[in-house]
Each structure stands twice: as structure tokens, then as C-alpha cells.
Amino acid sequence: MDIVVKTQASAALLRRDLRFVAIKEKALVYASFFKTGKGEYGEGDKFLGVTVPKQRVIAKKYSDLALPEISLLLESPIHEERLVALIILVSQYAKGDMVSQKKIYDFYLAHTTQINNWDLVDSSAQYIVGEYLLKRDRKMLYLLVRSKSLWERRIAIIATWAFIKRGDFADIFAITELLLSDKHDLIHKALGWMLREVGKRDEAALEEFLVKHIKVLPRTTLRYAIERFGSQKRIQYLKMK
């Protein structure tokens, strides 16, 4: 009888699999899309050219990857390695008990410097930070909001999606008020996106907030927030601005 030896999951093997399905031409497209040029928000980020569906297949294969190995991936300059690491973390958090979830939450916050593009934040913040803070003190969100890091501020915003889904809008309203003077377009877009999510569940609550802050809301935030309104109502709000 043949003896099957199971190879232990490792960052090195995962990297090998990513490179096997990489498409060089896509790497150039992704580098442009994620603004990796000098002075842009993703400056220096590097891409292999692996599609997100293929990254998810690989993440599933390595779903039991240990945190030290995930850390190696997060420290990589390669964007896809960091995204796969976060997809794995999200999966492990969802399946974990309270002890492992706390460990993953702490691990995530210890690696925010590597969660440094909008897709990395958006695919992970609500599922780890948001879910963990659902029934806990949320002061960590407000530390992140006041961070000089664009990505930590965006993590705080996107984390509130976990609350919004449960009809809890207090934190996204408070965070929006704190970030009204933020200059970055990616913050304006994230705020508008989350406010739009509020409107899907309670349009009256969103409108009450918009009317109160209409004069100081970034225009991009307002446009995102009112996307689901009828055309006449959208025009009305834009005129109020």
C-alpha cells in the first residue's frame, strides 16, 4: 500500500502556487488600477497578475495556514500574497472560537501597515475588526480614525459595516463627523459607501444625517451616499450642497 505524506502548508508553497497561475500582462493592468506610481496611494505595490477568483481557490487550499506563515505573506511586497493572507484570516476568524478570534483580531491590528490598499481593507476589516467589536467596547475604532495612516482610517470606516448590517448606525455617523475634514478621496468614498449601506436599511435615518451635515459633507461622500435615491431626490440633495 502506498504511503501518502501530507505536505505541511507553508507560505513558500502558497507563493509557488500563486506564481504558477500568474499572468504577466494582468500584473501591468493591476499595477495601474491600484495606483502604484510615484506619489500615488499604492506607490511601490507589486503584482504577479493573479485574478481574485484564483486567489480565493489558493486561499481555500491553504485555509489552515498558521499565523507565523500568514505573517510572512503579509510582510511581502507582492499584493496578491497579502490579499490571500487576509482571505485566509477572514476564513479562520469565521470558523474560530472566542480564543482564536481574539488572537486573529490582535494579529490583524498588529499588521495594519501591511493592509495597505483599499481592496485589502475592504475584504477584511468588517469581517475581523467589525465582527470582533460587535458586542465589545469600540474605542479602538476611534484610535484608528485618528491615525495618520489612510488605511487605518479606512479600516475603521469599513469595520462599521458589520454594525450597519445589524441596524446599528451610531458609529458610522460618529466616524463620518470626525472625518468631515479628511482630504483623501478614498476616505470620502468609503464614508459615502457606508452611508449608502445605512440608507438601504433606513432611508429616513440617512436623510436626517445628510440634512444635518449637507454643507460640510465632502461632495464625493454625498454622491456615494445618495446613489440609490431617485433622480429628483439626488438632484435636490446636490443643489442643497
Descriptive account of the structure:
It contains 16 helices and no strands. The chain is an all-alpha fold and 241 residues long. The protein has 2 domains: 1-123, Leucine-rich Repeat Variant, CATH 1.25.10; 136-241, Leucine-rich Repeat Variant. It is globular and about 60 Å long. The N and C termini lie far apart (75 Å). The relative contact order is 0.07.
Write the layout of secondary structure elements.
Layout: H1 11-20, H2 24-33, H3 52-61, H4 67-74, H5 79-95, H6 98-110, H7 118-122, H8 125-133, H9 139-145, H10 150-159, H11 161-164, H12 170-178, H13 185-201, H14 203-213, H15 219-225, H16 231-240
Q: Tell me the CATH architecture of the largest domain.
A: Alpha Horseshoe
The count of domains is 2
Structural class: mainly alpha
CATH fold-level label of the largest domain? Leucine-rich Repeat Variant
Give, in order, the helices and strands.
HHHHHHHHHHHHHHHH
Q: In one word, what is the shape?
A: globular
Oligomeric state? single chain
Cα distance, first to last residue?
75 Å
What's the β-strand tally? 0
Question: What is the share of helical residues?
Answer: 55-70%
Number of helices: 16
CATH top level of the largest domain?
Mainly Alpha
